[in-house]
Amino acid sequence: MVRIRNLHFGYSRRVPLFENLSLTLERGHIYGLLGKNGAGKSTLLKNIVGLAFPQAGTCEVNGHPAGARLPVVLEDLFFLPEELHVPALTADQFVGYTAGFYPKFSETQFHRYLADLEVPRQVKLPKLSFGQQKKFMIAFALAANTGLLVLDEPTNGLDIPSKVQFRKTLAGALSEDRCMIISTHQVRDLDSLIDTVLVVHNREIVLNAGLDDLAEQLTFGTAGPADGAGALYAEPSVRGRQVVRPNLGGAYGKVDLELLFNAVAGESPAVVNYLNANPVRHESAV
Amino acid sequence: MEFKDNEAIYLQIAGYVSEQILRQPWSPDEKIPSVRDLASELQVNPNTVMRTYEFLQNQGVVYNKRGIGFFVAPDADARVKQFRRERFLQQELPGFFNTISLLGIGFGELQQRYQEFQAGQAALIPATTDEKQ
């Protein structure tokens, strides 16, 4: 679906943001894109949707260069940026002007999503609160039924019930021919929703791994002061030291995404090196 | 659904499905929710629920009618108890042993308390299944 090869990009020639970055995204998955502030999450997304252009290397969507913005690519792609600028239209007017660009747009779904997310249809969009605007655009984005859905910090500004509804809606909207990529800082908002985690750090993708695979490779837990041996990464916490260890026992726990992120986006490459040296053998790809 | 840290989510969902079967909202040969519906309800990735259903299918708890969906197996109750037993012995019992040995609670005391517990259960609900929780 998305194929990035040896991407070089920077807003200034002297300060590269990405160097030799490669990444492949497939249909049927929800990817979670994580990175520190300024690591380039949004910029990477902009390269994917054709709003920023590679300085070197390629970024292709469905085999076409994203930067060419071909209609055949754009009609099957929806990008929801973090900051929204909504026109002075009601929901129905917005659909009237915009939905035609998306051949698979479903008005029935759109109305259901709006109702699920409790967004009024008769109010002009700029009169809605930021959270309501965001939910409106999420409903539109999902109803557009594009093969590629790119969401930049979609849960920012959503209240707690809306986050729950967002997860329900998204989980119900994934199908085998859709690919969703979500960037976020709020790891806990999404940790059971995404199936593959991407971490952008130090100008490249340092981690691109299925949560299932990670659970086989690593264990996450608390260690006493005495038994920190063998830990790939450790950080202090109230419960004792939180550690990431190689999964040698074959136990199969839940991946602690926050801890994993700190381990991968930190100074030490121990976790990344371990993962690369001990890949999971796949019996079947889902 | 609130997930625990020490067990894979797909297995926790398997536990949830089993619970529905043991407590009988979902009866034998009844269709269970589609992958998409259960994923939406539990706010988890559909691929995870698919993994749960494949796991339960391998355990003989559910069966798949191609193109229609997953159904509760006729002997699901026994199958569920069997794999829940395994899960309890592997996942929960070690922690339980750890705690009682740490606190010096002997088997005599446990036995007495367990008998009290059983008596309490029997007084509360006469003649139900011997479900252990």
TrEMBL record, chain A:
Keywords: ATP-binding, Nucleotide-binding, Transport. Pfam families: ABC_tran (PF00005). The keyword Cell membrane does not apply. SMART domains: AAA (SM00382). PROSITE patterns: ABC_TRANSPORTER_2. GO terms for molecular function: ATP binding; ATP hydrolysis activity. Residues 2-227 form the ABC transporter domain. Gene3D superfamilies: P-loop containing nucleotide triphosphate hydrolases. SUPFAM superfamilies: P-loop containing nucleoside triphosphate hydrolases (SSF52540). It comes from the Bacteria. PANTHER family: ABC TRANSPORTER ATP-BINDING PROTEIN ALBC-RELATED. This is ABC transporter ATP-binding protein.
From TrEMBL, chain B:
It comes from the Bacteria. Keywords: DNA-binding, Transcription, Transcription regulation. SMART domains: HTH_GNTR. Residues 7-75 form the HTH gntR-type domain. One of its GO terms (molecular function) is DNA-binding transcription factor activity. It comes from Hymenobacter nivis. This is GntR family transcriptional regulator. It holds the Pfam family GntR.
